[in-house]
From TrEMBL, chain A:
One of its GO terms (biological process) is glycolytic process. GO terms for molecular function: fructose-bisphosphate aldolase activity. It catalyses: beta-D-fructose 1,6-bisphosphate = D-glyceraldehyde 3-phosphate + dihydroxyacetone phosphate. It comes from the Eukaryota. SUPFAM superfamilies: Aldolase. InterPro entries: Aldolase_I_AS (IPR029768), Aldolase_TIM (IPR013785), FBA_I (IPR000741). Keywords: Glycolysis, Lyase, Schiff base. The keyword Glycosyltransferase does not apply. This is Fructose-bisphosphate aldolase. It comes from Astatotilapia calliptera (Eastern happy). Its EC number is 4.1.2.13. Coiled coil: none annotated.
TrEMBL record, chain B:
InterPro entries: Aldolase_I_AS (IPR029768), Aldolase_TIM (IPR013785), FBA_I (IPR000741). One of its GO terms (biological process) is glycolytic process. GO terms for molecular function: fructose-bisphosphate aldolase activity. Keywords: Glycolysis, Lyase, Schiff base. Transmembrane segments: none annotated. Gene3D superfamilies: Aldolase class I (3.20.20.70). Pfam families: Glycolytic. It catalyses: beta-D-fructose 1,6-bisphosphate = D-glyceraldehyde 3-phosphate + dihydroxyacetone phosphate. Its EC number is 4.1.2.13. Belongs to the class I fructose-bisphosphate aldolase family. This is Fructose-bisphosphate aldolase. It comes from Astatotilapia calliptera (Eastern happy). Pathway: Carbohydrate degradation; glycolysis; D-glyceraldehyde 3-phosphate and glycerone phosphate from D-glucose: step 4/4.
Length: 383, 385
């Protein structure tokens, strides 16, 4: 009876006793194991995620910066260069997030990209949200759409080689933001997305990005991040999401872009880890930071500092970087085939640096060693 | 807008001088020094090898305990009994980090006129006090309750702090049945626990948060785990909403066990896996320690379970220790039976249990009648939980 029970909710409970066992379990032990294994593979020690899921519109902006036309071929070509890099980059990249179009494109060698990537032992992921939509009655806040038919799309993506998905919600800080509605609505939609993904064998990456726009200080960002993440994990509990089979993709806790006060990587790291310790359950296997508006080096140095914080960190703390992994590579490419090797080299260099940063072992040339930077961490009571 | 800013500044203690309208940490609740004090107190209570003696039985609860050993429930007998516990020798100093007092006991003395509070504090053990005022029914539910005691709690906490207490305890009660716990019971109890916590912290008192799910019923282990996860998720959301400083709190939950009348038997390892899984899914790593209640478990059962929990192969970001009442005192009570000549023997019984639980909270307890041979215990796959 207990074995029958998990498989479906339509099958009315056979148990004669009115006492429910685990009311309407959402996943079988096998499904849980699969999701948990996928998540562990993505955030294996020293590894992080390459976010190569820029939409067509976003790619327009990236390519325009290097004066390259935003054609499907150019987009394919650039992704091809990255994915065909020397297999050693799979030592630092555990997963790659694809945009829908890219999932069905092929390498110059004729191989479909998902296959190319999987052969290197890297897990394939897919962006599944459909962008933000306005929340009436708020100060320009949004929710994210994409739930319609999501279950069927997930099932198809799983067949087409994906094992994880990504969905981005966006919040902002200002006098009146984030509002209670924005927090609750985005947390809820993230939980619905996560629940649907897991039913289809995809590990959901949960991304509640708080934008760095504004002149708020570090404390304000920490406060907002704690409130947002508390709401996210309450929603995940309410929606019966299996946390061991999820990943979190949050912002680091940083001051706003126009904040006049400057903070050290250690301060950013302490505020970030403190916020996460107060909100993210230990059963979440990994936290993969987005880079937001940070430069490549900033993103690596901050990630490194995060992995050196003298507080207990029960989850992996790694990267899920887009621009912070690709900016230099794009600049090296300039749309020219003859720059392929240089592009790949630049990309691999950045990937390796972030791999080290995810273990707290990155030593930028000229930077002090770990022992001397430890003293720069102030006590957590300040946060 | 200017008036608003001025009004805000004067009404908020210690508000930032920041001229910008952008709030820094909105209405910070505690200063750096206050946070440090709370965190360090919490750490001391759950230092390695230590747990909590819950000696806070109300007058009504003591009536039941004393009746079982044929002793009259007088204030003097209650004082005598607590004296038996508090006069334990230095062996308990490395096993007990804190003692929870009932209000009456906080102001009682030993035969020699030494205040109990002083006896405890002098050996480096921290003094706590039960501050709730018992359960009251929630109308419209199937026998569910919330807990009262918020009225004047701030003033009471200030007084308790003066009188030597550095931590407090508040017990909420939930139960499992076809229809319970209801959404109302979960949210109402989570809310009142958060209010209590917030008030305590303002007075430098570490709140021990106790959302007990009773073991009554015939539900199985999975059901208890499911309910425990829902209850704890609600508790920590409420803590966040009420701006409680988690590093300066302790949690006192039930272990995840089957109901008393459940026909399936589970091994200590299964209890441990279910318990640790539920906690890992809900209790933020910032919480300093988790000190389990013993509920209806026997002394040995509670120790064996605590030991299994500490040996469970899942990573544990918080200390996992005990906050036992009956599971530390049952044998002592039975040995005493109200007779002065039994006092030393009774104290020995208590010391013995304290030492056993000190080992158990480090995963080092190898003894026990029904435990069988020591050695590798099978914990099984975590994916079944």
């Amino acid at each position: 009876m207990v074995e029958d029970f998990p498989n479906t909710c339509q099958k009315t409970c056979i148990v004669i006793s009115l006492r429910m066992t685990h009311p309407f379990p959402s996943l079988s032990p096998e499904q849980k194991r699969e999701l948990s294994d996928i998540a562990q593979r993505i955030v294996a020690p020293g590894k992080g995620i390459l976010a190569a899921d820029e939409s067509t519109g976003t790619m327009a902006k990236r390519l325009q910066k290097i004066n390259v036309e935003n054609t499907e071929e150019n987009r394919r070509s650039f992704r091809d260069i990255l994915f065909s890099s020397d297999a050693s980059f799979s030592n630092c990249v555990g997963g790659i997030i694809f945009f829908h179009e890219t999932l069905y494109q092929k390498s110059d060698s004729g191989k479909l990209f998902p296959q190319l990537v999987k052969e290197k032992g890297i897990v394939v992921g897919i962006k599944v949200d459909k962008g933000t939509a306005g929340l009436m009655g708020t100060d320009g806040e949004t929710t994210t759409q994409g739930l319609d038919g999501l279950s069927e799309r997930c099932a198809q993506y799983k067949k087409d080689g994906c094992d994880f998905a990504k969905w981005r919600c966006v919040l902002k800080i200002s006098d009146g933001c984030p509002s209670a509605l924005a927090i609750a609505e985005n947390a809820n939609v993230l939980a619905r997305y996560a629940s649907i993904c897991q039913q289809n064998g995809l590990v959901p990456i949960v991304e509640p990005e708080i934008l760095p726009d504004g002149d708020h200080d570090l404390q304000r960002c920490q406060y907002a991040t704690e409130k947002v993440l508390a709401a996210v994990y309450k929603a995940l509990s309410d929606h019966h999401v299996y946390l061991e089979g999820t990943l979190l993709k949050p912002n680091m806790v940083t001051a706003g872009h126009s904040c006049t006060k400057k903070y050290t990587p250690q301060e950013v790291a302490m505020a970030t880890v403190t916020a996460l310790r107060r909100t993210v359950p230990a059963s979440v296997p990994g936290i993969c930071f987005l880079s937001g508006g940070q430069s490549e080096e900033e993103a690596s140095v901050n990630l490194n500092a995060i992995n050196q914080v003298p507080l207990h960190r029960p989850w992996k703390l790694t990267f899920s970087y887009g621009r912070a992994l690709q900016a230099s590579a794009l600049a090296a490419w300039k749309g020219k085939a003859e720059n392929k090797a240089a592009t790949q080299q630049t990309f691999i260099t950045r990937a390796k640096i972030n791999g080290l940063a995810s273990k707290g072992e990155y030593k930028p040339t000229g930077a002090a060693g770990q022992a001397s930077t430890q003293s720069l961490y102030t006590a957590s009571y300040v946060y | 807008m200017k008036d608003f800013v001025v009004l805000f500044k004067s009404s908020s203690k210690g508000c930032s001088d920041n001229q910008s309208l952008r709030m820094t940490h909105q209405f910070p609740t505690l200063s750096e020094a206050q946070k440090r004090e709370l965190h360090e107190t919490a750490l001391r209570i759950v230092s390695p090898g230590k747990g909590i003696l819950a000696a806070d039985e109300s007058v009504g609860s003591m009536a039941k305990r004393l009746a079982q050993v044929g002793v009259e429930n007088t204030e003097e007998n209650r004082r005598q009994y607590r004296q038996i516990l508090f006069s334990a020798d230095d062996r308990i100093n490395s096993c007990i980090g804190g003692v929870i007092f009932f209000h009456e006991t906080l102001y009682q003395h030993s035969d020699n006129g030494v205040p109990f509070v002083k006896m405890i504090r002098d050996r480096g053990i921290l003094v706590g006090v039960k501050v709730d005022k018992g359960v009251v029914p929630l109308a419209g539910t199937c026998g569910e309750t919330t807990t009262q005691g918020l009225d004047g709690l701030s003033e009471r906490c200030a007084q308790y702090k003066k009188d030597g207490a550095v931590f407090a305890k508040w017990r909420c009660v939930l139960k499992i049945s076809d229809v319970n716990p209801s959404k109302l019971a979960i949210t109402e109890n989570a809310n009142v626990l958060a209010r209590y916590s917030s008030i305590c912290q303002q007075h430098g008192i570490v709140p021990v948060i106790e959302p007990e799910i009773l073991p009554d019923g015939d539900h199985d282990l999975k059901r208890c785990q499911y309910v425990t996860e829902k209850v704890l998720a609600a508790v920590y959301k409420a803590m966040s909403d009420h701006h409680v400083y988690l590093e300066g709190t302790l949690l006192k939950p039930n272990m995840v066990t089957p109901g008393h009348s459940c026909s399936t038997k589970y091994s200590p390892e299964e209890v441990a896996m279910a318990t640790l899984t539920a906690l890992r899914r809900t209790v933020p790593p910032a919480v300093t320690g988790i000190a389990f209640l013993s509920g209806g478990q026997s002394e040995e059962e509670a120790s064996i379970h605590l030991n299994a929990i500490n040996n469970c192969p899942l990573p544990k970001p918080w200390v996992l220790t005990f906050s036992f009442g009956r599971a530390l005192q049952a044998s002592a009570l039975r040995a005493w039976r109200g007779h002065k000549e039994n006092e030393k023997a009774a104290t020995e019984q208590f010391i013995k249990r304290a030492e056993v639980n000190s080992l158990a909270c480090q995963g080092k307890y190898t003894g026990g009648d029904n435990y069988g041979e020591a050695g590798q215990r099978i914990y099984g796959s975590c994916h079944a939980y």
